[in-house]
Amino acid sequence: MMADWLTSPLSPEWLCALRDFCGQLGEWSHWQSHGFYLATRWGVLWFLPVIPLVWAFEFLAPRRWWLVFLSILSLAFIAFGLMPWPIDGVFPEQVAHHGGQAMTWARRAVYGLLHAAIVVLLLVGVYRLARTGQQRCRQPGRNPWHPLVAAVLVLIAGYFVLYGIRSGWRRLGEGAYGLDAFVILPNFHEAGLAYVFVKSVHYVWDSCRGRIQNRSWWRFLCWMTFFPSFRVGPIERYHDFFTQVHRCHRRWRASDLLHGWRRIVQGALKGVLCLFLGNQWLPAVGDQLADTVATGGASSVPYLTVWVLPWMVLMTAYLALAGYTDIAVGLARLMGYRMAENFNWMFFSHNLSELWRRTHMTMSRCLRDYCYYPLVRRGPFRRRPAPGGSAGQQVGHLLLPTVNFYITFVFCGLWHAPVSKMILWGLLFGTGMAVFELWVWFWQQRVDHNGLLYRGLARAGLAGGGWPQRVLGVLLTIHFLALSVLLFHGPELFFVVTRELIHRPFTWLF
Amino acid sequence: MDVSTAVICELLRAVTEKDIHEEDVISESRYLEDLGLTSIQLVDLVMAIEERFNVEIEDVDLAKLRTVGQTVDYLKQKT
Q: Which DSSP string do the residues of A327-359 spell out, in sequence order?
């Protein structure tokens, strides 16, 4: 009887969601090839031949020209990446617009330079905003938080408006006039706008708080456009970046070269693996699922396939980002810089809080420092001391600050892409974090640690940090993450997969 | 006021309302991982520290205060 759930027929909702999912696979596999795509076109493998030039300049040129040189090199990288590229099928629309290879390289180069110029204009705006914000914060009699909040709101509005302009322009160009839309306005998403936005918030915030003193334009431009990390991070903080720049100038070691090469190879392998998952394995699974859909459930999809599906989605997303991070860190290391890491054994996190300390770390630290902490300390749902001066460990005192988890993760979702499904993703993660916070509070405050229940669980290793508790925590955490990533591909898929995963094992019971 | 591990331990007891013994708290004890604080309790602790030592801790500095020892060093610099 227990084995029935493994072969039980699929529900109609499940079949519909799978059909839609299979329909998306063609387009999706292009997206999943990003790991390799990033490593080649945007990544920096193309820039490997430039490294000897960087070394030569570093040794031969005066030190004051170093930041200018790095900035110009990075802008060349941006122009190179933003050129129209009708070659890899990632943007088949471009091929249609330009008639395949009809566009000359000279024209592409002009467009690339034009797009790089637009990026520089945006950066000029951020730089001016930081200066204005700092001046206003210093004005006597003014609350220093008001200009800061206003400046950050301007950045947030600018970020979403740029996304809107791009998509609106795209529709206009494709539908009404057939304009050369893709080459007139840069694809801000491709240009790493999301990362530029986070760095901008960091720069403006720290400038307004007086934490950035030396704010010369070339320092700002060099840090903002540093080519290994421009497109997909890691997000290096301003001070950390210049600590590296000053410490590493004209100091290379063989270990740096070896480590750099190792990371680049490692990243490229992750990209290839991602490409394999996206273009070979996923379509194969998709064909199998499509057969099931076509036959209307006569042959059921094994439970194992349902279980593996979220894992595949998670692994491809992880490999794409981790692969690029490896390449970026490796390339910077070839130049002597040690950049911040993005991942630290995330699959072994034993709770959601730890997961966010190990996953996409540079981004999650920025979210924590510039969104969560300010909200929970100063926002409308801030942590308030209870009457009488104690911090307040009643559940009522804890519920209000958990709203900040929702705000933080909804913002995080919208940062990935300003679409409604990402709001759902943020709400899901906000709920997860709030539940975790209350769960810890419950076991700390409401359970008698000398009672029979706690002592029994502790003896079994399920309380007090025993290894069974940790293993269970790891499994729950990573499954939560894997399922939540399905929301990136639509809520229907998430709901049916979650339902099938939970419901099917109990079909023998109900 | 003297900044020491004992004072931090006292504040930890106040914010968590748990019986945390001084011998269990060492300089390398991490708030989130070793002492089991949640992120909200960490904010409680920071507020308690600010009030006790009359200092303002910037949000971005919270990342530097991962352990009891780091907190003590940070406060010694500030006060």
A: HHHHHHHHTT--PPPS-S-GGG-SSHHHHHHHS
